[in-house]
Amino acid sequence: MRIWVINPNTTQAMTDTIAKCAATVAGPDVIVSGVTSEIGPESIESHYDEALSVPGVLRAVQRGEREGVDGYVIACFGDPGLDAAREVAAGPVIGIAEAAMQAASHLGTGFSIVTTLARTIGQSAHLTERYGMQRFCRGIHACEIPVLDLDTDPNARKVITEACREAIEADHSDAVVLGCAGMADMCGEISAELGVPVVDGVTAATLTVQSLLTMGLRTSKRGEYATPPVKRYLPGVAPAG
Amino acid sequence: MRIWVINPNTTQAMTDTIAKCAATVAGPDVIVSGVTSEIGPESIESHYDEALSVPGVLRAVQRGEREGVDGYVIACFGDPGLDAAREVAAGPVIGIAEAAMQAASHLGTGFSIVTTLARTIGQSAHLTERYGMQRFCRGIHACEIPVLDLDTDPNARKVITEACREAIEADHSDAVVLGCAGMADMCGEISAELGVPVVDGVTAATLTVQSLLTMGLRTSKRGEYATPPVKRYLPGVAPAG
Amino acid sequence: MRIWVINPNTTQAMTDTIAKCAATVAGPDVIVSGVTSEIGPESIESHYDEALSVPGVLRAVQRGEREGVDGYVIACFGDPGLDAAREVAAGPVIGIAEAAMQAASHLGTGFSIVTTLARTIGQSAHLTERYGMQRFCRGIHACEIPVLDLDTDPNARKVITEACREAIEADHSDAVVLGCAGMADMCGEISAELGVPVVDGVTAATLTVQSLLTMGLRTSKRGEYATPPVKRYLPGVAPAG
Amino acid sequence: MRIWVINPNTTQAMTDTIAKCAATVAGPDVIVSGVTSEIGPESIESHYDEALSVPGVLRAVQRGEREGVDGYVIACFGDPGLDAAREVAAGPVIGIAEAAMQAASHLGTGFSIVTTLARTIGQSAHLTERYGMQRFCRGIHACEIPVLDLDTDPNARKVITEACREAIEADHSDAVVLGCAGMADMCGEISAELGVPVVDGVTAATLTVQSLLTMGLRTSKRGEYATPPVKRYLPGVAPAG
Amino acid sequence: MRIWVINPNTTQAMTDTIAKCAATVAGPDVIVSGVTSEIGPESIESHYDEALSVPGVLRAVQRGEREGVDGYVIACFGDPGLDAAREVAAGPVIGIAEAAMQAASHLGTGFSIVTTLARTIGQSAHLTERYGMQRFCRGIHACEIPVLDLDTDPNARKVITEACREAIEADHSDAVVLGCAGMADMCGEISAELGVPVVDGVTAATLTVQSLLTMGLRTSKRGEYATPPVKRYLPGVAPAG
Amino acid sequence: MRIWVINPNTTQAMTDTIAKCAATVAGPDVIVSGVTSEIGPESIESHYDEALSVPGVLRAVQRGEREGVDGYVIACFGDPGLDAAREVAAGPVIGIAEAAMQAASHLGTGFSIVTTLARTIGQSAHLTERYGMQRFCRGIHACEIPVLDLDTDPNARKVITEACREAIEADHSDAVVLGCAGMADMCGEISAELGVPVVDGVTAATLTVQSLLTMGLRTSKRGEYATPPVKRYLPGVAPAG
Question: Do A220 and B174 touch (CB under 8 A)?
């Protein structure tokens, strides 16, 4: 069973972290590979960044289809390109936001999301609605650490841990969802510190793909996720077919 | 890793089917056991049945806690006693309805539920709301086969398959959720017949428990799911502590 | 006209208070009786307690049906067993939460609920949704007095009154709903103190049952509340029929 | 205890029917009077009619306040002027739509509304939302009999009964709400014919006012329903004070 | 193209301000006239006031129809009589609340409303729901300046500007909607001061009417806004026909 | 005042039609230009197509910003790239779906959308939710004519007109929204045929941009639509700054 964890930004170091986290949880018969997007922004912190990350995500999925990959994780908390990727892929495609929120919905009656920059809160809120998770999400909070500083800022973990602590107090939450793939390796530590479950979407999404594949479930091609019609594209973008 | 799949009704044959399905998908390091409720109704087809099945579910979870069980599946599509079981258990407790609906939400943009008797449609509808799955569920349909006839009625599979076919047509759905634990072993066949993903909650819930345990996630004891206060109970019901 | 006010916990003193309040408002041709549950917890402060109170509620309704009772009040703010009781009873069955919230919805544009322990807030919130009262309910607040201390704690009334005052300020509410049957006799006093309507569910539910009976309205047996199918139950629980 | 049942249209015959129905259910210590609006339309079948009926309703309430009336029913299914009347009155004011829908919400899990002309369906739908009753209302249907023909058309009862029958079939409902005060006296007959509860708002609202008064509950003057500020009005409309 | 901007209260000075603002934005081929209601309250600050303003609005629209007016603005933030006016008018009728909120929905992801008295907040909230704008409206705030003091109170602009500043901070909004026609001429100043878009409904509604007329769009007479049936009205109110 | 109407697909003939419609309604002081996307698909009929059209839309807006364009219309009914374009542009950016639905919301109480292929219905449904227009949209229907055949298929108008007729019957709607920019020039004809308002988004959006500019309203740069942070992009995509 082969699963690709696609990093929608172009920063290889982040892919490495993500892939390592994903591999830790995957079953013995699963080969997890991290894939870095080849086009687009080095990090995703705006609608503009997100929009421009999607062609790279789709190109990665198309390559995966040619290579016989069984399922995909889109490892950015905005779940960029999810619908389009499902049209292109035969197997399951899971975003880390949907997987993390669904996992958290089983652990308590309300969770808080702690994300990077405040300007991305709107997109997280949109996703809580899209996935029906509004009723579980009690608040979305920013730690105001840019994505690419998560790894290099020596205070990052402490700042994020404090943001999580304040979030569960303010929201009367009983769990936390980390709102960025770049935080994937912080879960255990923050959870130990705060005494509540802390969910990372990279591992959650990897296990969701693995579970769907184990059950023999693939993307439905009957309706909206049918393979897109082949057509002419202006330079540089390959057709889906 | 030990997971108990609790059958909330008292029919052992149904437990056997359920346990077999669950074991098929569980990972190599997971021991899955089917547990039949010791008190309550032989099948669950009304609010009355469901209410009276809950003490048996809770008694099973309490026994599991004493025996060091890691997580639980409640294997009836009404997810009876889910909140109370989460208060009692330290590890994750997952209902088959929530797991099945969440799985289906990844495979298309809208699913249909096919359940047993029409009088249970209301409870399924209630659960779609509770889990935020209303936006994915396009219809709930009854095949009007009583739970205990699923195994014995020679036409059951055919009737259910036709009900699924009609449901996806009527609802413009692209996936099906089977609305009874007793249908757990019919997924593959119906899916092959209809060409759309068909989701069974028993396997979905088992893998959800396994995934949460793999990620080290347990029920939050900070809020509503904290251990219930110990108190005096009148005859026959053991306290939670 | 005979109405039973069922106390879902096993504490007789609480039944006495409830029955007295109910009798105060009932019409001259109405016989109101308080009935204490014979099995289950001494008070209801968790999902676990609530789940284990339901069999006792249903047993009481079944006894009432045999004795020709016309209608029932379930006198615990979680409205435990409401759906199942409606399946069993021919006449109307009303929970105190639904009755209190509906009454309050006529008196202003938004009410606050003041309940006992914070861990029960979730269940009250669930009921506001179930009854369509979310749009009227502006907040749910706990006074953190356990149910059985309501009667004995000399400061209870004062603490609850202050909780009500803070609730209407914080929520910009114009009415209060008391979130526990054990507070039934405090309405008048708190309302006089705060200058806003304060609603108790026990009296509200008793009058709702009385009103429905006066109009000749009984539980519909056409749909989801039809009498449950008779079936085999393991020890100690009588069938519904 | 004095309750005025205000007919918002100017047709005395309709007031007579309404008042008779209300009196049938009121308690022995309650004096129910029918009051016909003195200005406005002879029947209410459009937003225009409804808007122009409101000044007459308010004038009636103002007269009632001067005469010491305890509570009011607004006896038109559009509940015209409800908010404004609550600002003017000290005691409770109840619309027949809200009372009927709340009553029906206790009797089953979903009701159908059967009203007069199709062009009023929108207003009924608006009220189901306003009162939080959308989740109980499964459909709104018109019998296309004008309000003033309800009494004179010899086929009216039969046509309405058939409309009710079709509604519960089409909507899978288990109760019916009659959507016009002019249908108040048809409940029993239709219910007997169809075997489901049929709710009339006039009796329901009268009993709701009576119940609120019995509990000592009056309109909150703390918030949005505070007495309106006195001000200058151009000819013919008396100030509220 | 002739557009009437109807002031639903009877204060001519306010009509003058409103008409001036409307004229500023209207296209070269548009004749905008301010029309003062001839009956009703001098200002609208309660449900009572609003209810009694509606007959004057409808009378103005009826006069406009006789004079061949093409479209109407209802220039009070409660949008009084909107549905009824649409039944009466052939051309478009737009309320300033709906127009302002729709305009603001294009400029950011969430706006705050700043209105006059706190007691009108409920009506604004109702309108955000009616128009589907709840998801854009992050808060409604009162400056507690009565409508008729907006023009005369020398501190009005400063107080309102501060209320807007506090609103966008508290609500994390990125735009402001002014919640009273009497604030129509303050937009530019407040926007310049705060650095966010500030929307006035009078200009927004005037341009919405003008745009609809430019596109040849008029009120649909197929459904709920069909011309109301002619009927007998008691003294002083002319029939619609 | 300069407005660019951006065609997100690469088909120049479609741009020509769109630009012509837009120019017809624009005011005398407005210069409207049609702009064809330089990269991406020739038509947009899937999530995949839509995702790949966004970079071209953003590139067009960036060019417009350099040339001092005042506002933009995104002329595809999926409103592709709207959030990102608002981050990039200083002036207003309007999608044709939002403009059309808002216009239709003024003309009746419920509209139907008639679009091209059934597989795009999901995206239209998503937009009705995003814009708060779900309460006005009663149905979304496909005519199953591919986008590029709208111009060439001799039966297109007839087929679409019939689809509109069936939609308003089935949905009990009183207005129609055309769900594709390629239908922009069919409004008048279909409206004349069916006797209900038919709204095209291209003209509606052009007039919305014009109206916002006339009021001096521009995209708020305070919150989510602030200029995106400058960062490194891999080949071929220019940074936003």
Answer: yes
